[in-house]
Design a protein that fits this description.
- This protein has three helices and 20 strands.
- The protein is mainly beta.
- It starts with a strand and ends with a strand.
- The model has no long low-confidence stretch (mean pLDDT 97).
């Protein structure tokens, strides 16, 4: 039976993930996933596409979401009490306007120092109410689109075999920043064909393919660009009809629940 072998939440968009053994699945994905975002002085979100050092920012958040601690190599950590009540400020994500709640000067000064550019930290306001598109619509915090990104071990193994044929070394799963990693699907890209999935007590509905960008060229342990893989190899066999290259799939939350490492991944409905 296919099962969950990795479970990761990314509290701050673009920053390092938090490995989990169990987690609630909320309407917006794993608890606290992409509930914070780093923005520049103009309110536009920062991404590893332009700010790869985001990868070395390691957040830790309490279960109730009340405190957030930021870690990075070579600097003292900073801990903040999460503000969910102050005035809303305008932010921009892929050209769309949203609102956020600024988390104060201590977080801003710390991030500005680590990233080498003026930065602020915002969190999703309680009334966020963002709608996401795809075959199964849903909601998410500051994720690129749908709230849950799933990838299988077999898909990565197939990619790494092709990369090896080009004379390069294998890439780790972290390059792709999935929320749920599934082992036990023998055929690569099985996640692309699943339309309804039960995992733990939660149910997920397929939204779209995950179209990959330059973030996959960033070494997630060092925060340094390390291309041209995987995009070079993916371009040879994973081009998507809508443009770009696809690797992994995005899902919306149909039913909230609890999930944990080792949970069975049951496909209740397949494509077609």
């Amino acid at each position: 039976m296919p099962r969950v072998v990795e479970l990761t939440s990314y509290p701050i968009k673009g920053c390092a993930g938090v490995a989990l053994t169990e987690a609630p699945m909320t309407p917006a994905g794993l608890a606290h996933d992409r509930s914070f975002m780093v923005v520049g002085e103009n309110g536009v979100f920062r991404s590893q596409r332009r700010d790869p050092r985001l990868a070395v920012v390691r957040p830790a958040i309490t279960a109730d979401g009340g405190q957030l601690t930021l870690h990075a190599p070579g600097v003292d950590a900073v801990r903040i009490d999460v503000d969910r009540a102050s005035a809303r400020v305008g932010v921009e994500l892929f050209g769309t306007a949203y609102e956020g709640i600024d988390q104060g000067r201590a977080a801003a000064d710390w991030l500005s120092g680590v990233l080498g550019a003026p930065s602020r930290l915002v969190c999703v306001p309680p009334e966020h109410g963002r709608l996401t598109d795809g075959l199964t619509p849903g909601t998410s915090g500051y994720a690129d689109s749908s709230p849950v990104h799933m990838l299988s071990v077999s898909s990565l193994q197939a990619l790494n075999r092709r990369i090896a044929q080009k004379g390069s070394g294998p890439l780790p799963m972290t390059r792709f920043r999935p929320n749920i990693v599934v082992d036990g699907w023998d055929e690569p890209h099985t996640e692309d064909r699943a339309r309804r999935i039960t995992v733990g007590s939660a149910e997920l509905g397929y939204a779209k393919l995950a179209i990959r960008c330059a973030v996959t060229l960033v070494d997630q342990s060092s925060g340094a660009k390390a291309g041209p893989e995987p995009l070079r190899t993916l371009a040879g066999y994973r081009r998507a009809a809508e443009g770009g290259v696809a690797f992994g799939s995005k899902f919306s939350v149909v039913r909230t629940g609890e999930l944990a490492l080792g949970d069975d991944v049951v496909v209740d409905e397949w494509e077609g």
